[in-house]
Amino acid sequence: MGKMNVHYSSKSNDWATPQDFFDGLDNEFNFTLDPCATSENAKCDNYFTIEDDGLKQSWEGETVFCNPPYGREIKLWVKKAFQESKKPNTKVVMLIPARTDTKYFHDYIYMQARVRFIKGRLKFGNGKGNAPFPSMVVIF
């Protein structure tokens, strides 16, 4: 898996997962792959960077933790997670904004995955305040 140095600003669509929040999920699921990471924020030893493009890689046989970029491309990551979860021995857990009005929510999550809505708002990365949106954990 690739190693690279990329720094994201607070104005980007990348929201670094709070470590304690991830640790709780990791204790439950034992993740093996982070498909959208940098060498600085990867949550698993096995990960894909922007150059690797996790959308083009196979996740088969992995237990995946996916906190994708929250911009327009999020729908591509949700679709990919749904599709990859259909492969043998593959489980995907996503941390994404709770946007229940979106097409991707209704096409790939609603009635197709388990959803855990997070009470309150997460504090991502080195942010001083809470996120300006509610979050959910989606389990495929």
From TrEMBL:
One of its GO terms (molecular function) is DNA binding. It comes from the Bacteria. This is Phage N-6-adenine-methyltransferase. Pfam families: Dam. One of its GO terms (biological process) is DNA restriction-modification system. InterPro entries: Dam_MeTrfase (IPR008593).
